[in-house]
Amino acid sequence: MADFAEEIEICIDESKTEYIGLRIDKFLSEELPEFSRAYLQKLVDEKNILVNHNNIKSNYKLKKSDIINIYIPEPEELEIVPENIPLNIVYEDNDIIIVDKPKGMVVHPAPGHTSGTLVNALMYHCKDSLSSINGVLRPGIVHRIDMDTTGLLVACKNDAAHRVMSDKFKVHDINRVYTAICYNQFAEGTGTIDKPIARHKQDRKKMAIDPNGRHAVTHYQVIENLKNNFSLIQCKLETGRTHQIRVHMASINHPLLGDEVYGPKSKPFKSNGQFLHAGTLGFNHPITNEYIEFTSELPDYFKDALNKLRM
Fold first, then answer.
1. Which of 100, 80, 76 lies closest to 90 in space, CA to CA?
2. pLDDT tens, 203-230?
3. Burial readout 224-236 (b: 16 or more C-beta within 10 A, e: otherwise)
4. Which residue blocks in the chain are alpha helix, DSSP H?
5. Angle at which helices 24-31 and 37-45 pack, to 10 degrees?
6. Which residues are known catalytic residues?
7. What is the pTM of this model?
8. Which residues lie below 8 Å from residue 132, measured CB to CB, with a gap of 6+?
């Protein structure tokens, strides 16, 4: 069988008996929400979805103990073009560029987000001066922050700087401090969450605490108790897993305000996404080895919410 980007196996076991008799394309569109039903039907037609190792049609109805194997092909190469998108550049030299990312901006292109990303903007601003290590979809990108997280992010303008910065992230030799508003007040002013994180077994768009996951450590400090049982905190990352702060804080009953994925679905301040800001980024320069540190002011939407919770 050809190489695939991802292989997924699902068993209709005792935990999924309610799906017996359901069409497989409908079941998979609920089980794998990151893929559209039309795309899943296409995979069936292309014989990339098997049941009990047999080809099926998209109207196949599930039976008890069925084993479904889904083979996700490698994505088609996307054409990424430079776009004249304004950037808030905090620092720039011949090796690195530090930007203050706004809420709602995706860091790098992916299916469904091929334009308007930070990479599109960097390609326009830096021209050909971006590292190539992460390929055509993520030139210059060493690390990411979520679409609705604001704040500081470093990109690299050559491969030498990229290799050094990548190593720094691997060994956690980066000072990254985030500010967040979370639900509920704390009994103690500081704490450390040391819980491994992995992809959620049922909802593939989410991450979850998992004893078999990757090591993840977040240190937090309470800055201020707020009205209506909210808290203003700072989180310092020791590791950098996907959604780490969001998953860790939710795991101790302090989900972030506005985080509809890991917290309540309500929007008290009508802001899309979590109140999480990457406010401090410090490290030794990848070429000069001089320590440099940058800070970013809280965005207006964050300040407005704080003012209302302090009144």
1. 100
2. 767 899 999 888 999 999 999 999 999 9
3. eebeeebbbbbbb
4. 24-31, 37-45, 118-126, 159-170, 244-251, 300-310
5. 130
6. 146
7. 0.76
8. 139, 159
